[in-house]
């Protein structure tokens, strides 16, 4: 329910951590988001031939990390989440990064946009929250312009998540980055 999502965003210490980064990724999650964006961009560049500014909608945007990549690459961004707290966080992050977007609190199963409104629609980590995701997928397809592209995938929930075993890699990368900075300062 909506209050659970809002409470989750209020209680998570990493709520304001943005996975978008303009420079080189500093950890695995930033790298994963960058790689998602690069794949999306490759597909969009190949499939959509337009001289106009493309309109993109992120459904279940959370903090809007991927939308930041779209904005930085010239897209007109709209972000939607059912959680008011998530939308506030996304707005704050966009403002901090000097990004522009339109923000909406709304239900993924009843999207209040006109048919054929967007060139690209994506949802990452949204569909696994629905017992019957067809309704939200159909809603997103309704909003796509002819020839538009939809990206959607499920983030699996594992009881024994493999990432916990690789936290040491992030620590090495952080140490490497610190040493690299220290080395550069000495020169």
Kindly state the number of beta strands: 5
Shape: globular
Q: How many helices in DSSP terms?
A: 6
Helix content: 40-55%
Overall mean confidence score, pLDDT? 81
Distance between the termini: 55 Å
Secondary-structure element sequence? HHEHEHEEHEH
Strand fraction equals 15-25%
Structural category: alpha/beta
- Provide the low-confidence segments as ranges: 176-187
Radius of gyration: 18 Å
Order of the strands making up the biggest sheet = 3-2-1-4-5
Major sheet? 5 strands, parallel
Describe it for me?
The chain has 187 residues and is α/β, with parallel strands linked by helices. The chain is built from six helices and five strands, in the order ααβαβαββαβα. The chain has helices at 2-11, 28-47, 65-72, 84-96, 134-143, 167-186, and strands spanning 55-59, 76-81, 102-105, 118-124, 144-153. The chain has a five-stranded parallel sheet with strand order 3-2-1-4-5. β2, α4 and β3 (102-105) form a beta-alpha-beta unit. The radius of gyration is 18 Å and the shape is globular. The N and C termini lie far apart (55 Å). Mean pLDDT is 81; it is low at 176-187.
Give me a quick take on this structure.
By secondary structure, the protein is α/β, with parallel strands linked by helices. The protein is built from six helices and five strands; from the N terminus they run H-H-E-H-E-H-E-E-H-E-H. Helix 2 (28-47) packs across helix 3 (65-72).
